[in-house]
Amino acid sequence: MCGIVGHLGPQNSVELVLEGLKRLEYRGYDSAGVSFIDERDVLQNYKKSGKLENLIGFLGEGPFVARSCIGHTRWATHGEVNDTNSHPHSNDQLSMVHNGIIENAPALKSELSSEGFEFKSQTDTEVFLGLMTINLKKGMSFREAVTASFNKVEGNSAFVLIDPDTSDIYAVKRCAPLVCGINEGQSEVLVSSDPYALAGLVDKLYFPEDEVVCHLSSGNKNLLNFYELDGSKTTRYLSKIQDLSAAVSDKGDFDHYMHKEIHEQPELIRSLTHYYFAGEGVPALEKAIKEKPENIHLVACGTAYYAGLVIKDHIEKLNRIHCHAELGSEFRYKNPILGKKDLGLFISQSGETADTLAAQSLCKTNNLKTMSIVNVDGSTLFRDCDSNLLIRAGVEVGVASTKAFTQQVLTGMIYSAAMNGILDNPDRKKDMAAKFSLLAERVDKILSEENKIESIASEIHNYKGYFYTGRGVYYPIALEGALKLKEIAYVHAEGYASGELKHGPIALIDEEMVNVALVGPELYDKTISNIQEIKARKGIIVTIGPRGDEHLKEISDHFIELDFDGLDELSPLYVNIVDQLLAYFIAKFKGTDIDKPRNLAKSVTVE
Ligand code: M6R
Fold first, then answer.
1. Residue from 257, 345, 350 whose mutation best tests the ligand 1 pocket (most atoms within 8 A of CB)
2. Domains, the chain, with CATH or none
3. HSE-CB of 137 using CA atoms within 13 angstroms
4. If you average pLDDT over every residue of the chain, what do you get?
5. Is 385 among the catalytic positions?
6. Which of 269, 420, 464, 600 is deepest in the core (most CB within 10 A)?
7. CA-CA distance, 604 to 607, in Å (whole number)?
8. Catalytic: 69?
9. What are the residue ranges in the chain where pLDDT is below 50?
10. Percent of the chain scoring above 90 in pLDDT
């Protein structure tokens, strides 16, 4: 949720931290702030509510000379969005930033207040500042104070702190993302909540395990040291050489990342096909299908969950293995029935979603094998699972997930096909590869004609509400289409199984409601009857359906024609790309902040 970046080294720390924060701003944009030790060795703290550009404007013309700096972009959990609640929180003894939630903050607040600590903000974070301040006053060293304070707080969090006496930076976390990195040549050391912020700046990444204190220091012969909470040195971290420089992306000629990411899909489909059918992904796929599970517990959140529903359908149809699709936030608390030979399968773009990670950990504790379908190589989910299938979508910056959905579904289908032996049969494998390539071709075509979808969006963007309906494999697509529209266009949209409307929601249909009807070749007649029921109640019908279908054209107010021939089980993905474009253009006509929709963050690392 919140983005954290820290830097220590001879280069200008403030500039590097701001550069890192720019890359992470899509993770939270309620406020931004930096703390640094200036050239007179004085701790400076600047923070501003709103987007990072507000902070940059407030800082004015640099350069700010500093060789140690921490920075933060906030997604507010405790306390409204204002300057005081923004991070860093600081006093003359330290400055600190935080990502996560301190669950026992109320109790600690009263304790600290009775010890004389005065709170300025409404945040839970300031509790940690209070604990640190009191522990330092007791004469503890900075690292001892970090450990003692961390031992008192409950919940999942990452903390990064700067010590004004030494300029050193300390970091520690529990079930929250944190990564350190070293640039040996420049004698620089960095820390962040996301490796993406460190791309191109470090040669080596270090992923600390939970409850490991990371000490970033320039005065030490090692720039980076790791300690257990009892003060002993530790090797509980994973080090990795990872060149992420290619991952740093810009919008190119597009107005928004979301639009650019929708357009990347044909190429990504092609490269994923090669990766798993003949390329470097083959060993990971072989590992993934080594043991055939009795049942699959497929767990994810949001868009990744809807991708999971499509995958579930594919696995069950092809492999006849019972596949339970579950929301991460529900699964973790429902005491699920888990068999010893079952598989926990987790789908995530970021690999850092708190509820998905908690579900993975629950499966692991119950001795299940766990596997991920994930985008971010090296993410917590990737590291914690027994096997991983990367979706290779590249960095997804737009908060609304688009290309990740397509790649998740395709990777899940490849897994399902491999489990069925399809990839061991040259003819069937060839057929499947041909379908993937056909999908890429059809998506290319849709994208080249997107102005047709834009013109429909211009006519329907001001209605009261939107029902996305579909049956069978198009039902998850209806859910995903509605989610996309509501999150970026701020209008009420609901996804429904077409046959369910008459069980209640049809009461809402009138001339101010739009029905986006998804009609593929499957269950065609049934779906048409459902459209008629809405039309009879004066709803506006936008149909996405087979090309040349005169009947559909006649009953629809707007008709988006698609060529389904030969796509078979990939058809839902094809329809979904139209949904993505429709949501994008409706939001554009409404003038919303498409890449950073209000109240959202790219990666949901709190419960
Ligand atoms: O990183 P994850 O795939 O685990 O994220 C899951 C959801 O938070 C995410 O898909 C969210 O629903 C998107 N904003 C949807 O566009």
1. 350
2. 3-248 (3.60.20.10), 250-447 (3.40.50.10490), 450-590 (3.40.50.10490)
3. 11
4. 94
5. no
6. 269
7. 8
8. no
9. none
10. 81
